[in-house]
Amino acid sequence: METAAGKDTSKIESIDGLPDELNQTFVNEAPTKSFLARSGSANPNQRVWAIGGGKGGVGKSLIAANLAIGLARSGAKVIAIDLDLGCANLHTCLGVEIPQVTLSDFFSKREGDIQKVLVPTPIRNLTLASGAQDAIGVANLKHTQKSKLLQKLRELDADYLVFDLGAGTAYNTLDFFLAADVGVLTLLPEPTSIENTYRFIKSAYYRRLKLADSLFEIRPLIDMAMDQKNPLEIRSPSDLLREVTKYSPEMSVKLREEIAKFRPKVIINQARTQTDIDIGFSIKSVCKKYFGVDMEYIGYLDYDSAVWQSVRKKRPLMLEFPNSKLVANFERIIHHLQQEQAKQKQQQKSVSP
Amino acid sequence: MFEEENQNYYDVLDIKPDATLNDVRQAYFRTKQAYSKDSAALYSLFDEAQTRQVLDRIEQAYLVLSNPEKRKEYDKVHGFLSPEIPGMHAVGTSHRKKGSFSFESGLSGESSNSSAPPKTIADDLAKGIFSGFDDQPSKPAANPTENYATPRTLADSAEQNAFHADSSPSARINSWDDEVSWKSNQNKLGIVRRVDLIRSENKDAALDSLIASETEFSGEFLKKIREQRRISLDELSEFTKISKNYLQAVEDEDYDSLPAAVYTRGFVFQIAKSLKIPHDKASSGYMTRYSSKRK
């Protein structure tokens, strides 16, 4: 496989000072860069929002559903996709009956046309690709299936694709998160959730570095850093940067550039007190100090019993409880993200010739 | 800590070099809170020793950056350009440490600074000075303010922030502050104390009219108002200096756990004041219930 740098990654020379076993480990797994590429989209303004978060039960499906509803209500054409394979709940949060054709059919090739997998929801302009009726083992997607799905989804005529990701840090989850324009991490203001969020950030971070073409030369070091008990005693991202700088200052510049591209967003869910709300700022600060990652705190959601009530009724929260404070919370978050999108566009325009 | 060696005081407080004194103050609180002993945000990443290190750095950074003279000196030494007039923003500061790629310049939107259209002639001049900065260390870094100290209004700098691929820390702080502003006073020792317990975005007109129409002021009512204002018992206790147990007892109307009536009245008075409930009305209402129940 040729890369931008012109080297053949299947035959990389060994890095001095590394034990031989480690030099050989990375060669075969090289994930394709096309997964992260934006080409092939029918709608060049299409944006992909991925809602993830390490811990289970923090509200990803709920948030994905209601963000999708909010976007659709503002006039955009939205497709919600349930990528919590093996654990699909998005259809319930959207008030949709368990569909007959779902993503499992697409993966098993029973249904080749992704359009046929989309089902309508109670909200205009919003359709759903459900993960229900799942085949056993669907959670263990092959890389090619993942790429194909993403490619087909991007070809659809939609302004927004909203992914509901699963919990945990499986590569499937990480890769969809990294492929999105906006990656949102959901967390509760509790130690378990916070710890899992950091876990997720760490995994996504290293996964991203591993997928970066410009860093292929130092992939062995990145692989090492992913193992907490590696021989070079790389424990934190700071250690990795130090080792890379020792190896090649030029590579350390590239490493910093790649790190700067990783900008996850965070939403605090079930906030009850001001302290809960403020935790978002603390997490942002800690994340910057530990990982060197610029995380953005985009909003919080109040704890509201309307949530469990709407889930039990299997009705979308925004429709069932339009007077809930949460509706305003969601709209604020959407507004914020759309504003940032507009600013980025403007910046691109002013920079390009 | 990521790249501890390369972190300057602005990095430590998560602010940009052109932050105002107010920004510095708020950043100090924010970071101090993030690294406090009880902060949930530290879990699994920082141990006690590392946290103490960070807190020390935060104190050092604040001592220097909150003092205009010390800050000017620090800026000179480290190649930042500080505002000549206290409280005014400098023109988009572009800074580079000689030789090494500076981590913060990659993130603080330095590249977008250069793409932002200049607003005044002074800006143009300033850009001329800055772009040569790295190559010509003999340039008058000693008098950086002469040519460029055109005070920018807040609106200008907000607009400039708009050209950054946002999420830079102080830009975030600026917009969140509209909703989460901490009003504070700074006394001579630099100790800041919040005078207003209620955050501005927790002010609620419907709630205020509910309070205005209330006559009884039971413990339950006080609790309801506190919760609606999103204040925890811990926060109220810290603010009023009344122990949490007493606060709880007042809300539960657990009179046996409370001291003599005169003290209880005092507690209710303080609680009401902190929660912005008419304190006279509240304490007499509450004490009327107290006496009738204690007969």
Notes on the structure:
The complex is a heterodimer of chains A (353) and B (295). Chain A contains 14 helices and 8 strands. Chain A has an 8-stranded mixed beta sheet with strand order 3-4-2-5-1-6-7-8, with helices on both faces. Chain A is globular, with a radius of gyration of 21 Å. Chain A has helices at 20-25, 60-73, 90-93, 103-107, 143-155, 171-179, 191-211, 219-226, 237-247, 249-261, 274-291, 306-313, 317-320, 325-351; strands spanning 47-52, 78-83, 118-120, 126-129, 160-165, 182-187, 265-271, 296-302. Chain B is elongated. The N and C termini of chain B lie far apart (62 Å). Chain B folds into 2 domains: 4-194, DnaJ domain (Helix Hairpins), CATH 1.10.287; 200-293, lambda repressor-like DNA-binding domains (434 Repressor (Amino-terminal Domain)). Chain B has helices at 9-12, 21-34, 48-65, 68-78, 103-107, 110-115, 121-131, 145-148, 154-163, 169-177, 205-213, 219-228, 233-240, 244-252, 261-274, 279-293; strands spanning 184-186, 192-194. Chain B is mainly alpha-helical. The longest helix of chain B is centred in the N-terminal third of the chain and has 18 residues, at 48-65. Classes of the chains: A alpha/beta (353), B mainly alpha (295).
Instruction: Identify low-pLDDT runs of chain B.
Output: 85-193
Q: What is the total domain count of chain A? A: 1
What is the mean predicted local confidence, pLDDT of chain B?
69
Count of DSSP H/I helices of chain B: 16
What fraction, in percent, of the residue positions of chain B are helical? 40-55%
Hey, roughly how much beta strand do the residues of chain B contain?
under 5%
List the strand order in the largest sheet of chain A. 3-4-2-5-1-6-7-8
The beta-strand count of chain B equals: 2
Based on secondary structure, the structural category of chain B is mainly alpha
Q: For the record, what CATH class of chain A applies?
A: Alpha Beta
Largest interface: A-B, 45 and 44 residues
Do you know the CATH topology of chain A? Rossmann fold
Number of strands of chain A: 8
Number of helical runs of chain A?
14
Mean pLDDT score of chain A: 85
For the CA atoms, what is the radius of gyration of chain A?
21 Å
Structural class of chain A: alpha/beta
Gross geometry of chain A: globular
